[in-house]
Amino acid sequence: MAQPHWLRKALAAGAILAAAAGVLAPASSASAAGVSTAVVPPPYAADLPDLSTPAVAYDRAGQPVATGAAVRGADGALLYSARSGSTFGPLQSLGGVIVGDPSVVVNSFGTHFFVRGTDDQVYTNTITPSGAVTGYSTVPGLTVTGDVEALVPNLAPAGSLRIFARGQDGAVWTNSLSAGAWAGWSSLGGFATSDITATRTFAVPNDTVRVFVRGADHRVYVSRVSAGGVTAFEPLGDLQVTSNIAVAEDALFGGGFIAARGTDSGVWTLNLFTIPYVWKPLGGTATSDPAISFQGNVTSLYVRGTDDALYVNKAASPDAPYRGYERIDGAVAGNPAAFGPGVSALGPGLLLARLAGGSLGLNVDPSPTLQPPHKFGGFTPVPGPAVG
């Protein structure tokens, strides 16, 4: 019998999360009265693509906007590769044994990583601007049942960031860091049967973060989080999806358009600027989560096909007609991560994915254009440890 998605990741993770300074002890779950309680994680969908996804480190105030990528190693350790132009340096091991995929964000205080430990606690590690690694510490107060999602909200004070995670009740929980102190976990409600996708939108109010999940009925739901408050999760149409939700993190309005795989295994897109919400089919047969990237006047959507190759489908804008799928040579064994120069600017398109041999692979299109053919030159393995 197939193991549930959350359990497969936990079994693959191995021993307790460890740091260079020693073992990070698991925290016990306790009730308000101090009595230990055993809680079985609620159902977490086994029908989603159970593939690793590279986490791109975005520096919203810097250039380039994407500064590196984090992945889980084959040994369970957290790995990081710093970007240099259109290449990536060797993967650096930050140690530990993590469950699932990491999340990474950049602010003026450094590159911050957030992971789920094998004790289901949230851990953070930081590479400071000088290059020093702080080591692991916990973000206490929540036992999680999914990957952690992190971002730096628009207009946030220097050094601030926000994280999201799925709790034992299946709801989405959030915590924010400001002036070096965590505010504490609070529930956004909902019931997530997917990983959490959070993105800045620059919508009114200007610090709005949109949080997307798949619900218990397999529809996509969104909550809007800002300094002024939180909205309840609302469904976005009636489409049932079988993937995590993709947004374009390198776009100014990345949360305005989303993509997901439907029950027909085809890719579907949704424009959140138009009400009523209407999902549009792009067809294809997807075997991965989709990824979206903007390069100037080219919107590129990527997905893995049944032959394990990635395919790109382009449009002049996210809601314009797409040109059709083009095959990108090379087999991949993970979900794609795609990004460009940032803020919808012109520039190269970059693809990251785990290769069949276990390496993290990089592929570059030096000058994306709307018309085929694409110009991706082939996957080049990023030096360093194997990716899990």
UniProtKB/TrEMBL annotation:
Record Pfam families? DUF8189
Give a yes or no for keyword Isomerase in this entry.
no
Entry keyword annotation includes Ion transport: no
Q: What are the record keywords, sorted? A: Signal
Leader sequence segment:
1-32
Q: Which residues form the PLL-like beta propeller domain?
A: 159-339
Q: Which InterPro entries match?
A: PLL-like_beta-prop
This chain's protein is named PLL-like beta propeller domain-containing protein
